[in-house]
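Appendix B. Raw example, untouched.
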Amino acid sequence: MGIVTSVKKNKVGAVVISVFDWYPSHYPKEERKLLRKLDLAILIFGSLSFFCRFLGQQNITNAYVSGMKEDLHAYGNQLNYYVVAYNTAYVLGQIPLMTLQTKGKLAPFLLPSLQIIWAIIAFCQSEIKQSWHLYILRALTGFLEASSFGGTHLILGSWFKNEELFKRAGVWFMGNSLGSMFSGYLQAAAYRNLDGVFGRAGWRWLFIVQGIITLPIAFVGFVVWPGLPTSPRRWYMTEQEHALALKRIPTVEKEGITWKTFKYTLSRPMWWICVSCYIFLCQAHYWTGYMALWLRSTGYSIELVNILPTFIDLLRAISSWLGTTLAGCLSLRGLWTFQASFVFFACIVLSIWTVPDGLKFAAFYFGGFSGMASPILYSWVNSTLKENYGERGLIISSMMTLGFCNQIWIPLFTFPTVEAPKFPHGYPAATVFEFTMWAILMGGVWYMNRWKAKHPDLEMRLAANEDASSGNGIDSADSGSVEVQPKDAKATIATY
């Protein structure tokens, strides 16, 4: 204990301990037990579900460069159009499905039910004979996956306090990158070992394996997914633990998204900051999945075309965990600038294009640092708006809706498949988008700190509720410093 106390006195040591101390000793025993149950229930299914979703998304690109293009005669901008079909339906499903996700009685069962249909669609994709079949299936998938990302983030932010949320969101976000990464290895293995088995091409087996993985995970969700704190108590939680969960997270509004939510949310600055930032984020990072197109054009084998881009996903997984976790104990603006610098440099290199292949590899791999951006942004939304399910759900769904709404048409001009792999319009545009994205959040965090200082009543009430729920904890401040004190005092950690 003496060693831990002495380490905490050092700023770096305090940060390290904060990152790995998921169950602080100053929490009551009952609260630590509740957190362990929530971690097992939410993080296991949430991460696996996220993994399955991004496995399916990456499978389209991997299948395209592994024989699907030739088998379906999907030449020209067909790959763009598959993405457009998905994104259009994804946009249309955002607010309807997120509205359902904010309803306590539906929240525990919505995502597992949708995931069963994801698996069925994956099996159907293995049977497609014409390109237009895939348009329909991608659109259906997009609609049914609309609440996966935002809905899971809503659940995370509803059960965990700010200092708990950042650590767990980082682990959850790793499912995104690991799903994309696993898809590359899976396609390479399918092409090597299953191509031609039972008369099926290797890329068709990719979708079959995806469905086999997705289906049992959906049934796990029916057993463990907790929904919202206002949802009916799940079997693994005692009545006392459920009451503690409701007490831990202060809420001003529990009815979910209503018509009043729209008026209230649009009158506050957070909606405008977050939505505009996410629109530019989507465009700034669109290119990070296109390394395979460059590799295919240079004559690499199909196995290497599928394997080499997975290192981007590995770096994205690590950076998303580090970025989100450290955002709970270091300056959010510093981390935001750190990740933007790497991506900005990569965009400049790829805009020039006539550089050595080694530098191109470095630029594509630097794109993995983009994994920090979305987790930091969404965790900031959750921690800033923890008190209101409806406002938080509406902002998250609006970010996804408008972000992907613009992603439907802008890439047709910036990253048309016929301009691959150089994309002379895409990489310069991504450079501008990256800088704009960085500037919006930097200014937005500064403005929200000032805005909250002018509206202290709600913040004081929330702080009082959090203190009352567990006695002691770690609260957010804007000092940019870390100060860890004994049990009877508060440890102040900056999240802005």
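End of appendix B.
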